[in-house]
Amino acid sequence: TLSGGESQRIRLATQVGSGLVGVLYVLDEPSIGLHQRDNDRLLDTLEGLRDLGNTLLVVEHDEETMRRADEIIDMGPGPGKRGGEVVAQGDFDEVVATDESVTADYLAGRKSIPVPDERREPDGELVVRGARQHNLKDLDVPVPLGTLTTVTGVSGSGKSTLVNDILYKGLAREMNDNTSVDPGEHDAIEGLDEVETVRLIDQSPIGRTPRSNPATYTDVFDHVRELFAETKLSKRRGYEKGRFSFNVKGGRCEECGGQGTVKIEMNFLSDVYVPCEECGGSRYNDETLDVEYKGKTIADVLDMSVAEAHEFFESHRGLERRLKLLKDVGLGYMELGQPSPTLSGG
Questions:
Q1: CATH numeric code, 4-108
Q2: How far is residue 19's CA from residue 13's CA, in Å, rounded to a whole number?
Q3: 176 and 198 Cβ atoms separated by less than 8 Å
Q4: Phi, psi (rounded to 5 degrees) for 106
Q5: Where are the beta strands (DSSP E) in the chain?
Q6: For position 290, what pLDDT does the model report?
Q7: pLDDT tens-digit profile of 45-60?
Q8: Domain boundaries for CATH 3.40.50.300 within the chain
Q9: Residue intervals in the chain for CATH 1.20.1580.10
Q10: Which residue of 62, 101, 160, 311 has the fewest CB atoms within a 10 Å radius of its CB?
Q11: Distance (Å, rounded) from C-alpha 31 to C-alpha 43?
Q12: What is the CATH number assigned to the segment(s) 214-342?
């Protein structure tokens, strides 16, 4: 029942209490889920670990963490293929003075996120009645509809319990007939008739196997396979849409089962994955790769970034719209065929 922030600070407290010296601590975005008050306490704890004689390496976006760091390493200049370089390194003032760094532009105030001049008025409300799961004190909470509402508060104050455990799960059970979820304790949720459905968007993986990727998850790949099935060569050979799936027999490379890689088991070490020698990592057999759409094979399309694919398929309405949405949320750099397990939570 602990929140993410609480669990992380318990681990930190254990390390501080151990009194170890000469340790390199690696922390991956420790400020996630923390209120500013808790973040200040976290940074005090990290500085205490450093002062004991330890080294701390922190992956972080938080401005206060950057301001209090002794050294900043700024990666970039962009995401995905456009990144992979050290853009700036030094103390806070040295990094801020760097022109090539997007991070520095925001830290120095050269760029900023504008605050809206007007706030939208709600067009109705949901009301959670009698919320009393975990530490919630029998609350009645109105939630405005048709607006962007932020639920905030210190770590462990009950935000996730109210929003995820009670509101989301309660709506999912009532509206989506989802009996697999068990809502937290509450009396009722009023105003259900004003909402069509409910969706949870979190950082859980979109797929747990290499066979899942951004193209399959967003249904982009369905449209792409239809286009390849409609080419003259496909029709002449009798290829249908399924021929261009790497998950079924027929068009895929059978040596690697359409995965593009082959697992080599190392008896006393972790298994190693190497590119398939038969297909060279393309996932498909030679006959399938004979088929081209605008000079590109199905494997070429999977190797495209979202931005490249958006330009390539701009004349196809269904594909263009889906790819534009991915671009709009900042994923233009991502490869369509990138295996889901390699994606970050964000």
A1: 3.40.50.300
A2: 10
A3: yes
A4: -75, -40
A5: 24-28, 55-59, 72-76, 85-90, 125-131, 139-144, 188-190, 261-264, 272-275
A6: 95
A7: 899 889 989 999 999 9
A8: 4-108
A9: 214-342
A10: 311
A11: 9
A12: 1.20.1580.10
